[in-house]
Design goal:
The chain is of the alpha/beta class. The protein contains 14 helices and five strands.
């Protein structure tokens, strides 16, 4: 344990004594947290919705046909019960559902007060809001002769009732910014020693490749966890994002996610000769990770051949877990299905990084 603790102490000192590393730790996360919280917007298409039709009138069937023919909606599911409606939203199989009550068309024709209920998934506040607007426009066209007004629609959004933008962007930022910090710190680790000429001394030291990997993994993991905790505190305290889940599940997911990212960073660092190469390698990985994770654009919008590749992006699993613990209070069994793939990706990347260390030593 003593050689490992000494190596961990050395890594902490190396990170803090390097001006570039200090800047990476402090400045970019703060700037990005403020800018991205207000600037990120998304385009909406390929929406899945469900319809629970208790009316079964000519008008309700016309509404279903209209929605199915719309380019906005990919799948329109016919639901059989309120229980199925709840299940579809909980499983994120649909973004919104429409509940049409009995005798809706007759009451509209008779000028009586009635309503159509639209239930959106507030975990995706921006897309849910736009989807509801599309649905309302479609219903209004079907019943335009009956002069449907705004009071006809009753909209509810589960998990994010007011569709607050901060409620979905801040959890996403917690994942993406902590990823950038962990990736940059680890991608500079070995490359920094190569530039300073101390890497060869490390290779001839009586430390096994496994000890080297562990010693270089723990410091960035601790630092990026602290940074993520700061973002978490800011999201809950300053931006008013609710947190209804388990802190234990949150940190189990956070450590598993950062573990997978640190492994990728060490692999990049092991094949980089300079710090500049390490930084470029990190940013080459960051862009596809963010684009393929569902942060910027829905995964459903991607080509069918590309969607399976998103299973290799650990950020995708972590973003689902974050919004689950922030807004929904998911169970540990659900979280475990997201944590295991992140751990698997982490161990895989560390195996490759360890092989590169061993290759350099040999």
């Amino acid at each position: 344990m003593y050689p490992l603790l000494a190596l961990i102490k050395k890594e902490f000192l190396a990170i803090w004594s390097d001006k570039k590393s200090r800047v990476i730790i402090i400045v970019p996360p703060l700037i990005q947290l403020v800018l991205f919280s207000f600037a990120v917007t998304l385009e909406v298409k390929n929406i899945n919705i469900g319809i629970l039709d208790r009316d079964n009138s000519v008008q309700s069937e016309a509404l279903i046909r209209t929605l199915k023919l719309s380019e906005t909606f990919t799948n329109v599911y016919r639901l059989e019960s309120e229980k199925q409606l709840t299940t579809y939203i909980n499983a994120q199989k649909v973004l919104a559902t429409i509940y049409i009550p009995q005798n809706f068309a007759k009451k509209i024709a008779a000028g009586e007060h009635t309503s159509v209920q639209i239930i959106g998934d507030g975990r995706k506040s921006n897309t849910a809001q736009i989807a509801q607007a599309y649905i309302q426009m479609a219903i209004a066209r079907i019943f335009e002769n009956a002069k449907v007004n705004k009071d006809t629609f009753i909209s509810r959004n589960w998990y994010n009732p007011n569709l607050d933008n901060f409620w979905w962007i801040l959890p996403n930022l917690m994942g993406s910014l902590s990823m950038i910090i962990a990736l940059l710190l680890t991608s500079l680790s070995v490359a920094r020693e190569r530039e300073l000429g101390t890497f060869e001394q490390t290779l001839v030291s009586p430390l096994s490749p496994a000890i080297l990997i562990i010693g270089k993994t723990i410091p960035p993991l601790i630092i990026s966890t602290i940074e993520a905790s700061v973002i978490f505190f800011a999201a809950v305290t300053f931006f008013g994002v609710p947190f209804v889940g388990s802190v234990i599940i949150l940190y189990c997911g956070l450590i598993s996610f950062l573990f997978s990212i640190v492994g990728m960073g060490l692999f990049i660092s092991s094949i980089s000769s300079t710090q500049q190469q390490g930084i470029l390698g990190a940013f080459v990985l960051v862009v596809p990770y963010i684009l393929m994770s569902g942060f910027a654009t829905p995964v459903e919008n991607m080509p069918s051949w590309l969607i399976p590749l998103t299973d290799l992006v650990s950020l995708k699993y972590f973003l689902v877990l974050l919004k689950g613990v922030f807004l929904k209070n998911i169970s540990f069994s659900i979280a475990l299905g997201l944590i295991i793939p992140m751990l698997a990706l982490g161990f895989t990347s560390l195996i490759f990084a360890s092989w590169m260390f061993r290759h350099k030593i040999d």
